[in-house]
């Protein structure tokens, strides 16, 4: 990682994997990293609302939109955490996640996927993220 402290983009999905991403961002902050969260589809559930509030109280920034080009992610971040979909994901990848996965497949910074690479359970060939690291939760 080239910056000090290292910058990390944590991309959270709408389910439990997204919740794991929010917890991951909190821990990264506690260990001195600079996480930024992109959380496009937030479920309206008390647990997830509490996790978002905890991150906000720790001054972890949330992006309003995904950087549209892989090159921008490469320039701004040292690592991407893929917390979009986990083991229980089935079916086709829909928007906005189809576009997000497409962008992630073009980045050159390392990607750490929580549970499994997002989209790998999809029927669509080539729709999954290609991580450098998978972390089981």
Automatic annotation (TrEMBL):
Keyword Metal-binding part of the UniProt annotation = yes
**Which keywords describe this protein according to UniProt?**
Isomerase, Metal-binding, Mitochondrion, NAD, NADP, Nucleotide-binding, Potassium, Secreted, Transit peptide
Root EC class = isomerase
UniProt-listed Enzyme Commission number(s): 5.1.99.6
Which reaction is catalysed here?
(6R)-NADPHX = (6S)-NADPHX; (6R)-NADHX = (6S)-NADHX
- Give the GO cellular component terms, alphabetically: mitochondrion
Residues spanning the signal sequence: none
* The YjeF N-terminal domain, residue ranges: 1-137
Listed GO MF terms: metal ion binding; NAD(P)HX epimerase activity; nucleotide binding
Instruction: Give the matching Pfam families.
Output: YjeF_N
Q: Does the keyword NADP apply?
A: yes
Q: How does it assemble?
A: Homodimer. Interacts with APOA1 and APOA2.
Q: What's the stated role of this polypeptide?
A: Catalyzes the epimerization of the S- and R-forms of NAD(P)HX, a damaged form of NAD(P)H that is a result of enzymatic or heat-dependent hydration. This is a prerequisite for the S-specific NAD(P)H-hydrate dehydratase to allow the repair of both epimers of NAD(P)HX. Accelerates cholesterol efflux from endothelial cells to high-density lipoprotein (HDL) and thereby regulates angiogenesis.
Q: Which PANTHER family match?
A: NAD(P)H-HYDRATE EPIMERASE
Supply the name of the protein: NAD(P)H-hydrate epimerase
């Amino acid at each position: 990682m080239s910056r000090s402290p290292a910058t990390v983009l944590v991309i959270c999905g709408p389910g439990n994997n997204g919740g794991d991403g929010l917890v991951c961002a909190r821990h990264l902050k506690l260990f001195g990293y600079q996480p930024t969260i992109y959380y496009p589809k937030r479920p309206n559930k008390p647990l997830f609302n509490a996790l978002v509030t905890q991150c906000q109280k720790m001054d972890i920034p949330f992006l309003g939109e995904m950087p549209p080009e892989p090159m921008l992610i490469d320039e701004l971040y040292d690592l991407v955490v893929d917390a979009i979909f986990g083991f229980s994901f089935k079916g086709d990848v829909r928007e906005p996640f189809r576009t997000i996965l497409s962008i992630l497949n073009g980045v050159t910074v390392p990607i750490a996927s929580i549970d499994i690479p997002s989209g790998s359970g999809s029927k669509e060939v080539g729709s999954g993220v290609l991580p450098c690291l998978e972390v089981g939760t």
